[in-house]
């Protein structure tokens, strides 16, 4: 095909049935499966183990953990568009998902070897960073399946339900880890608490959870047919296609605007998660247990919001869903910066959580509508890039303003700038109808 002009960002080529009921459920279940990794390993249990037990001090551990996650984010940003472009030449997505899912499982299982000694810090950070890259890159190919999996007129609901199921799966795995291994005086299998086996086992357990619940997607969800392109040819043509797409990206008016807008409000969301616990501890004097409870409540409400707003996504469209979510995040985010009591903080935090999930799930379905079918995985690679390339801006703004003003409240207020800037860019975007009037480059109807 000629690339003298970029392909039109047509609506997804969904069939009335999509992947069928079993295929859709199995695809959604993959969100339940893989969300165990970021919840248990990256956010709660293993992150606390590395920063508070293995590292010389919590401050050093936090800094080193942030560096490792940042470097893994750079790798994800670089690899996602390239591998997405190659996959588009080959056609099928599930083999790529399998490779990266198994890599995440295998590297995660090696976390068992991370013993509580200072010499293990680099090894722990290397394993977590590699597993994070495998998890995130695999998600690119999984997300790209959405437009073919969802029945016509239901992309928003399928994306939202899967996202909500992901939050539930992550919390279910976290609860299992806490109840079976972390909290009991005598952990399951008689694991030795003195050598932190009860914490180290969460790596293999998450890997097993991921493997078991991901299996239905590989067995029951249909994939695009392969194109019979040799691997070397797919690599060469994929890289050439990516180069041409990047050069012509300014001509994809709606897609480029969306990627920049998402880059801003997603940076706000990521910064909110990264600094929420720090703000709770510093401004409200909350203990670790209180922060853990708050984090769980935030994830529960985010999952409920993603599932509930799934209907609104299909009714009003994903762009309006994102705008509503970001507007409410800004409004209640401003309110939470003004309150003084822990109770008000908990209540407003849970309300904020209701709009975090919809902002994420509706962004995925909006990308599914905008991305041209012939370069869809590549576009989801750029989508992943937009979520990583400016990940430093939010933390830098929060940290800098906090120091300058000697106030965590003023520092956290900078997140509102990211939300409002992203919403302002997204506002004029013209999204295609769900079932498809193609658009010409620049966002004008064909």
Plain-language structure description:
This protein is mainly α and 446 residues long. The protein has two domains: 14-247, Up-down Bundle (Growth Hormone, Chain: A), CATH 1.20.1250; 252-431 and 439-446, MFS general substrate transporter like domains (Growth Hormone, Chain: A, Up-down Bundle), CATH 1.20.1250. Helices cover 74% and strands 1% of the residues. It is built from 18 helices and two strands. It has helices at 20-34, 36-43, 45-54, 58-90, 94-109, 121-144, 146-149, 155-182, 197-200, 202-220, 231-248, 253-284, 288-316, 318-336, 342-370, 376-386, 393-405, 408-426, and strands at 439-440, 444-445. It has a two-stranded antiparallel ribbon with strand order 1-2. Strand 1 and strand 2 (444-445) form a beta hairpin. The longest helix has 33 residues, at 58-90. The chain is globular, with a radius of gyration of 21 Å. The two termini are 19 Å apart. Mean pLDDT is 82; it is low at 1-14 and 435-446.
Essential attributes:
74% helix, disordered N terminus, mainly alpha, Growth Hormone, Chain: A, 446 residues, two-stranded antiparallel sheet, 18 helices, 2 domains, globular, disordered C terminus
What's this entry about, in short?
The chain has about 450 residues and is mostly helical. The protein has helices at about 20-35, 35-45, 45-55, 60-90, 95-110, 120-145, 145-150, 155-180, 195-200, 200-220, 230-250, 255-285, 290-315, 320-335, 340-370, 375-385, 395-405, 410-425, and strands spanning about 440, 445.
């Amino acid at each position: 095909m000629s690339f003298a002009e970029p392909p039109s960002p047509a609506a997804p080529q969904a069939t009335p049935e999509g992947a069928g009921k079993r295929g859709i459920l199995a695809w959604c279940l993959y969100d339940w499966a893989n969300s165990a990794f970021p919840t248990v390993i990256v956010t709660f249990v293993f992150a606390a183990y590395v920063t508070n037990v293995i590292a010389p001090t919590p401050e050093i551990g936090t800094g080193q953990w942030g560096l490792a996650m940042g470097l893994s984010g750079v790798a994800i940003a670089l690899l996602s568009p390239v591998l997405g472009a190659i996959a588009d030449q080959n056609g099928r997505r599930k083999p790529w998902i399998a490779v990266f899912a198994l890599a995440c499982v295998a590297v995660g299982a090696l976390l068992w070897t991370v013993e509580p000694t200072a010499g293990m810090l680099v090894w722990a950070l290397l394993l977590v960073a590699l597993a994070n890259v495998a998890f995130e890159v695999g998600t690119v190919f999984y997300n790209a399946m959405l437009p073919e999996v969802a029945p016509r007129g239901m992309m928003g609901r399928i994306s939202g339900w899967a996202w909500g199921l992901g939050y539930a799966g992550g919390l279910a795995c976290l609860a299992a880890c806490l109840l079976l291994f972390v909290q009991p005086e005598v952990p399951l299998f008689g694991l030795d608490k003195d050598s932190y086996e009860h914490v180290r086992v969460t790596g293999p357990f998450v890997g097993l959870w991921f493997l078991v619940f991901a299996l239905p997607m590989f067995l029951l969800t249909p994939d695009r047919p392969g194109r019979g392109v040799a691997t070397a040819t797919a690599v060469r043509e994929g890289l050439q296609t990516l180069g041409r797409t990047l050069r012509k990206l300014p001509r994809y008016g709606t897609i480029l605007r969306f990627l920049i807008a998402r880059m801003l409000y997603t940076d706000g969301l990521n910064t909110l998660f990264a600094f929420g616990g720090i703000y709770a501890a510093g401004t409200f004097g909350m203990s670790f247990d209180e922060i853990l409870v708050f984090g769980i409540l935030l994830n529960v409400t985010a999952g409920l919001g993603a599932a509930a707003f799934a209907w609104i996504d299909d009714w009003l469209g994903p762009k309006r869903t994102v705008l509503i979510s970001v507007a409410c995040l800004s409004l209640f985010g401003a309110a939470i910066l003004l309150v003084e009591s822990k109770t008000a903080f908990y209540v407003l935090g849970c309300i904020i959580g209701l709009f975090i999930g919809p902002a994420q799930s509706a962004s995925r379905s909006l990308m599914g509508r905008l991305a041209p079918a012939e370069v869809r995985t590549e576009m989801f690679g750029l989508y992943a890039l937009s979520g990583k390339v400016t990940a430093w801006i939010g933390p830098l703004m929060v940290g800098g303003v906090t120091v300058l003003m000697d106030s965590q409240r003023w520092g956290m207020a900078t997140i509102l700038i990211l939300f409002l800037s992203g919403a302002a860019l997204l506002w004029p975007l013209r999204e295609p109808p769900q079932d498809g009037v193609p658009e010409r480059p620049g966002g004008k109807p064909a």
